[in-house]
Amino acid sequence: MKKVTAFVGTARKKHTYYAVRQFLNSLQSLGDVECEIVALSDYKLETCVGCKTCFIKGESSCPLKDDRDVLIEKMMASDGVVFASPNYAYQVSAIMKTFLDRLGFVFHRPCFFGKACTSIVAQGIYGGRKIVKYLDFVGHGLGFNVARGSCVTALEPMSEKDKVKFNGLLAAHSKRLHNRLSQAPYPVPSLLDLMRFRMARTSIRLMLDETSRDYTYYRDKGWFESDYFYPASMNVFKNAAGRLFDYAMSRNANK
Ligand SMILES: Cc1cc2nc3c(=O)[nH]c(=O)nc-3n(C[C@H](O)[C@H](O)[C@H](O)COP(=O)(O)O)c2cc1C
């Protein structure tokens, strides 16, 4: 049984919430999935003050005291995660953005490998697709295997035709996440992912030291020596490219 948790960034139970319910019902009907909806508005989330303590000393030294870790534990306990938000002024809602900012250190030290994620955006008229792309990009940066998200338009009043389209879109979307949940949890990295990993780890190794949490995290994970974040079978071409990326970054760091 796979566990999927949807994090919903809206204070009201309207279209975003309804879309998530539809999506999860459809996902459950595909089998072997249990779901939970987490309304971010039910949790205390402070606004990041930008001190970067989490980057440097580690997230446990963050001066803010809120429910960040409770929410991270929920993500950790899930096989799949959904980020859902209404479109507010062509972006995610403030509550969703606050949540993502609180995960800022995870972009430095990704930890959600082996898990799937996707996104749902509800909009009135326009701009939601870019937000879906943004949330999918965020999910990738956090370490998730991303199943492409969807944007639903919920202009009121909704006609019957619009409702059919709305539900059809979410049914197709649920199949994408279901497929992703049943695929290999540790996919072979793309060339771009490999480049990002090798260049980041080489610059962290050469430019930081033991006083930095990024450095000790990468060191303790064995990432200074590994081919990628996790064991992945790579062909000769990717192995050579990986060495080249390390070399390019070490030359840059030594300048
Ligand atoms: C502050 C605010 C800003 C909004 N900005 C946009 C927008 O830029 N583009 C859009 O298509 N809809 C916009 N909308 C409409 C909402 O995205 C739409 O009503 C959506 O269904 C809201 O989700 P909810 O029903 O879950 O609250 C905005 C709504 C609010 C309240």
Describe this structure in words.
By secondary structure, the chain is α/β, with parallel strands linked by helices. Helices cover 49% and strands 14% of the residues. The chain contains 10 helices and 6 strands. Strands 1, 2, 3, 4, 5 and 6 form a 6-stranded parallel beta sheet that branches. Helix 1 packs across helix 7 and helix 8 packs parallel to helix 10. It is globular, with a radius of gyration of 20 Å. The mean pLDDT is 96. Bound molecules: flavin mononucleotide.
What is the makeup of the main sheet?
6 strands, parallel
**Whole-number radius of gyration?**
20 Å
Note the run of SSEs as H and E. EHEHHEHHEHEEHHHH
Given the structure, what is the number of helices?
Answer: 10
Strand-pairing-aware structural class: alpha/beta
Give unreliable regions as ranges.
none
What's the mean pLDDT score? Answer: 96
Share of β-strand residues = 5-15%
Which overall shape is indicated by the principal axes computed on the Cα atoms?
globular
Q: Which molecules other than protein and nucleic acid are bound?
A: flavin mononucleotide
End-to-end Cα distance: 52 Å
Helical content, roughly?
Answer: 40-55%
Give the beta-strand count: 6
